[in-house]
Design brief:
alpha+beta; Immunoglobulin-like; Mannose-Binding Protein A, Chain A; 2 domains; six-stranded mixed beta sheet; 3 helices; elongated; disulfide bond
């Protein structure tokens, strides 16, 4: 496959220097010297832009995750672009596919079926609209734009606003493991708070003299005023 791809690019470069609007240059190296032949991209650069600040929404609302793309230098004419949205884990690895679109045709996946579609109001816009936002939608999303051999992406952080509150199980404090805590939250129509949600509540004055589970499986202790009954005066 690499040889076939390389040969195809060589033919395109020799007869038509621009393929899909991009120019590909070829460097020959001596394979016997331990180096391989390299084909690299040196034409118009595809740039994907998303907001640096988080996008906030609430349960049951509609939200737009902004994403736009452009070329440097600009390329004229209509292009056949593929757009892909994915939900990410905290470590930026893919958690689930959200939507794939080519032109006006798109397919949403899993829990996003019937709730997600592409907002293409302007030129070179790839924004994602999610309706009836759910608590589980909180997290990072990757907007990926694919043009031929070019593939660039950027990330949007969606944060759900709500009330961070403690839960005391009937059989006593600290009696739930992580998975039991997740289940109890679901039974009440809630989810375990994320670190960002807890941090925001803490920044707004939350002072809770208890440790509690968070969505990433860690345990946090949101103390603002150190005191002896709550871990000691030096906490």
């Amino acid at each position: 496959l690499p040889l076939l791809l390389e040969a195809t690019l060589l033919r395109l470069a020799s007869h038509h220097p621009f393929y899909n609007g991009f120019y590909y240059n070829r460097i020959m190296n001596d394979k016997h010297g331990g180096q391989e032949k390299v084909v690299y991209f040196n034409g118009a650069k595809l740039v994907v832009e998303t907001p640096k600040d988080p996008v906030y929404s609430s349960n049951g609302a509609n939200v737009t995750l902004p994403c736009r793309y452009h070329y440097e230098p600009d390329l004229e004419g209509k292009r056949k672009i593929r757009i892909k949205w994915s939900k990410l884990r905290d470590d930026y690895t893919k958690e689930q596919d959200v939507l794939v679109a080519i032109g006006k045709t798109y397919v949403a996946f899993g829990d996003f079926r019937g709730r997600a579609h592409i907002h293409q109001a302007g030129r070179r816009e790839a924004s994602l609209i999610v309706s009836d936002v759910r608590l589980q939608d909180d997290g990072k999303y990757r907007c990926e734009v694919i043009d031929g051999l070019e593939d660039e992406s950027n990330v949007v952080d969606l944060r759900l606003q709500g009330i961070v509150s403690p839960y005391q199980p009937p059989r006593g404090q600290y009696s739930l493991n992580f998975h039991e805590a997740e289940q109890v939250c679901q039974e009440q129509g809630a989810i375990l708070a994320t670190f960002h949600q807890l941090f925001q509540a803490w920044s707004e004055g939350l002072d809770w003299c208890n440790a509690g589970w968070l969505a990433d499986g860690t345990v946090q202790y949101p103390i603002r005023l150190p005191r002896k009954p709550c871990g000691g005066v030096h906490l």
